Amino acid sequence: MGNDNKQYGLLIDYEYCTGCHTCEIACSQECDWPAGMCGIKVMEAVETLPNDKAYLAYLPFPTELCRLCAGRTKKGLQPACVQHCMAACMKYGPIEEPAKEMSKKLRMGLWRPY
Ligand code: SF4
Ligand code: SF4
Asked: Are 67 and 39 a contacting pair, CB within 8 Å?
């Protein structure tokens, strides 16, 4: 996997996120963040479906602190959040590949470090 993290990113498929917060815990343990800081946050949003029923969606998004687990990816490992996401709704890879996948679905987000 990539040595130049500027060309890599995280693809998050919101449709399959269960809101378990494991990605936050994995990030905190990997990066040893102080309380209240994290490289990823899982937010909740209530959406209204076409049949007027409410739908609770979970939106994990990396923060400005995320550096894509550069220490892990240089060794060929997956970022901690990707490794531990039980729903397997996050992928790490070159930006061009996730961008192609995004064009197939609406509920996807692509993120790369600032
Ligand atoms: S670990 Fe995966 S399923 Fe759980 S909140 Fe994070 S992105 Fe969603
Ligand atoms: S890639 Fe690493 S630093 Fe970024 S959110 Fe995931 S675990 Fe945290």
From this structure: yes
Would strands 8-13 and 108-111 be described as parallel, antiparallel, or unpaired?
Answer: antiparallel
Q: Which two tokens stand for residue 93?
A: 């890879």
How many Å lie between the centroid of ligand 2 and the Cα of residue 52? 36
pTM score, two decimals?
Answer: 0.85
For domain 5-111, the CATH class is alpha beta
> Cβ < 6 Å from ligand 1: which residues?
17-23, 42, 58, 60, 85, 87, 89-90
In tens, the pLDDT along 60-81 reads 999 999 999 999 999 999 999 9
Q: Tell which atom from ligand 1 comes closest to the C-alpha of 84.
A: 1
Domain limits, the chain: 5-111
